[in-house]
Amino acid sequence: MAHILPYPPMNIPPTELLGWYEGARRDLPWRRPDVTPWQILVSEFMLQQTPVARVVPVWQDWVARWPTPSATAAASPADLLRAWGKLGYPRRAKRLHECATVIARDHDDVVPHDVDTLLALPGVGGYTARAVACFAYRQPVPVVDTNVRRVVARAVHGRADAVSSSGVRDHADVAALLPDDERAHRFSAALMELGATVCTARSPRCGLCPLTECAWRRAGYPPALGPGRKVQTYAGTDRQVRGCLLDVLRGKDCPVAKAELDVAWLSDIQQRERALDSLLADGLVTRTADGRYALVGDAH
Length: 300
Ligand code: SF4
Description:
Blueprint: H1 14-24, H2 37-47, H3 52-65, H4 69-74, H5 77-84, H6 91-106, H7 115-119, H8 126-135, H9 146-155, H10 168-177, H11 184-197, H12 215-218, H13 238-250, H14 258-262, H15 269-281, E1 285-287, E2 293-295
Antiparallel strand pairs: 1-2
Helix pairs in contact: 1-11, 2-3, 2-8, 9-11, 13-15
The structure holds iron/sulfur cluster.
GO molecular function, one term: purine-specific mismatch base pair DNA N-glycosylase activity
Cofactor: [4Fe-4S] cluster
Family: Belongs to the Nth/MutY family.
């Protein structure tokens, strides 16, 4: 049976949200005025499923070393994988290299500003395209991540969390909330910041919230419908094994014998072989003619 709310959906007043945002927003390096659209795009690749604190030092080193798409495109994929370090999901580094190559070759080294052209770039999905259009080019497009979904579910609809992660309805929801003026891009950023720092998943800090009206608070914080979210584990997963194998190769500047990879994960041989096969299939690792292994671009 549908969950009937006692009140109609609420609005989020831009003045309340933006007034708070101006004073409370974090001084993240990719928000500074001299940062280019390409560097913002790099931050969005890195921030996918990765906490801000881990991204900051890697992003700073990365953009100092490869400040433009053409500089990134000219870099060795092996160097990019080394610089990616422990951010996880290293396919993103490879996709970023492909994305840089297309921008340098087809777009005069300038990140496109419209969502449809951004969506055609390698590794750029709906969220990243909108985030770059909004944060780099100040376009009034809805930018919807899990933080924004949660704030809108709570403040507007009175639910503990978003009903689905499909995104279609959420985009319409957030688009309807955006102010119809030059504040729209800041409103998107502020919604995200509120979800990241105040209206957090486990313990919302309602005492610090700038919104004077919140449907979930008014309804007495009804619990989430349906099963809770599963917490992702890392220890013992194929992701961890891939990370261990990549660590070995990052530490070398020439191909290594298979035995050097074998000792990196001894507890489950099948899992290790599966992880190595997946790294080869993803194009992150190559096998030389004499049977040794290297990061892609390192097999001389
Ligand atoms: S009042 Fe609490 S639950 Fe509502 S939006 Fe603010 S922090 Fe989130």
